[in-house]
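Sample intake — Glycosyl transferase family 2
Collected from: Paracoccus sulfuroxidans
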Amino acid sequence: MTTPTVIIPAHDEGEYIQDCLRSLLAQDYAEPLQVIVVANGCQDDTVAKARALTPDFAARHWALRVEDLPQGGKPGALNHADRLAGDGIRIYLDADVRPSPGVISGLIRVLEPPQPLYAGARLVVAASKSPVSRAYARFWQKLPFVAQGVTGAGVFAVNAAGRRRWGEFPAIISDDTFVRLQFTEAERILVNQPYEWPLVEGFGTLVRVRRRQDLGVAEIARLYPELLANQGHVRPGKGQLLRLATRDPLGFATYTAVALAVRARRSQQGWARGR
């Protein structure tokens, strides 16, 4: 099998990059692996911290390559890494996530068949300091799209045939949604291995991020309407939503308040990037 590649775009991720890379070093995968970190437009110590772990990867007989691009931009970083990667399985990993030890081997195992396939792991929101973020995360993780679907948030992978579904990453907001919708529900596989995904802290930040996520989905609907046929069943029914709300009224209230704030700002100001 061609050596799989893990691709990690990183923009000012000095706070997180070593934890992410150490979580890779703790994987139970025993075969050769290539890891490419593409720092893009960094003004912090992301590059130095990533390169400091090169000997640790060499000790596992894995190749760690750290690229330092002067310009920022996640799509450009992903495309740069794709040009360096081999023809095998590609695992795209955000620099602030921490996969549990079985994630990489699990993804590679399910992507071995020759037909185009997409895979993701089981998302677990990392512990938040903010009570608002904790309540939001608790409810959001119970929604069918997160609890049962393959979200691709922070971690997604494709085999060689799957990677041929698209060319370069376009300059859009939601790269994970763009890739996920290249595949039907039947072609998307959930690996039951957890990874920690951080959620932003506080109500205002949640609203800005949720607003940006909605903008990303709307952008794909506008530019690539044909992909929406692959969206699948992403919304809970009224009965299911009522049951979830009854079990966690505080979480439901928080989730609803964020959603209403997003709609209010959209109607008042139009779409804007939530940074």
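Post-analysis note: The longest strand covers residues 188-197.
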